[in-house]
Amino acid sequence: MKIVVDTNIIFSGLLNTNGAIGELLINSKNSFEFYSCNYMRFEIEKHREKIKKISKLSDLQLADAEFHLFSRLKFVNEDLIPKAVWEKAVKLTNDIDLDDTDFVALAIYLKGGLWTGDKELYNGLKRKKFKKVFNTADLNNLNNLF
After folding, report:
1. Which of 8, 62, 76, 88 could form a disulfide with 57 if both were Cys (CB 3.0 to 4.6 A apart)?
2. Alpha helices in 71-135 (DSSP H)
């Protein structure tokens, strides 16, 4: 199953690489193919100092954690996503959070799911009948089925 990973999942994974998120990303190769968009890398870089401060990781430790998590992701250039898909994604996110449009568009484009830790996005997409949105508990449950 193709799963698009949004920034808050990677952010959480970097803060605790030994937690449930890191475990899912690293050890569910037989269940999921993980994807993200280039925008996610930009967001992580933008918040690097905040991540370092919260995690108390050194530059080297943070780079190592990032390498391990990013190595499980296939990055897709957002320019490949057709305009019609962007329009659908904007309709889904316009009253939730437009910053998440890239991830929703990529999930639609790949015909996959979206993994988010953002409760507002998760609940908002569920209300709009976007069925392939998952939180970490959802993915853990799915992973256990495989």
Report:
1. 62
2. 83-93, 101-110, 119-127
Find where tokens 């890239």 sit. 102
Q: From CA 21, how far away is CA 12, in angstroms rounded?
A: 7
Calpha distance 80→71 (Å, rounded): 21
Do 36 and 145 contact (CB within 8 A), yes or no? no
User: Is the distance from CB of 133 to CB of 126 less than 8 angstroms?
Assistant: yes
- DSSP conformation class of 78: G
Tokens representing 118? Answer: 């953002």
Q: How far apart are CA 42 and CA 47, in angstroms?
A: 9
- For the stretch 66-91, pLDDT in tens is 998 999 999 999 999 999 999 999 99
Structural domains in the chain, CATH included, are 2-145 (3.40.50.1010)
Distances (CA, A) of 8 to 64, 85, 114: 18, 22, 12
d(CA 105, CA 102): 5
pTM of the model: 0.92
